[in-house]
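A sample follows:
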Amino acid sequence: MTPTSTRPKFWSDDFDMDLLKIFPELPTLIREPDRLLWTVGHTTFERLNHPNTWNSHGAYLWLRKPNLPRDAHGWFNVEGCVDNAPEVECTWLEWLRDAWSHLYPTVVMPSRQRLPGSPQEAFMAIMYDLRGWQRRDVSEHRKRSLRWVMSCDFILSGIPCQR
């Protein structure tokens, strides 16, 4: 893995609602922020910017590179979800930052453990307050958002890495 300080820019670095701007202490709160993970989807600056998602469950996340079997045209099939997107490496912190803004739930493979989508109502309330669109006390929304992060971290930390 490339050290965080020398990695290319992350798409939400300049986003006012980036998770690290809302919770700057986050890298010290979660376990293994630099843990490498894999998904399939889109990139910006060659880094994760929204994995592909399916209405049935959201996005897929792997603890190691899945090397998905593909047909002659580059398509893969994971439990009935078909796509031709590339496999994308990301860190656990990048995953959380991306999921926070894009609001998708996730299935961790192959264990099929579920990570909930970020709390959309809390995200919107914090954003409206931050941007001055609707001033209000967002302390409960901040707590709910941090509980989401910590819940995801707890779930992921309990999944053994498949070798």
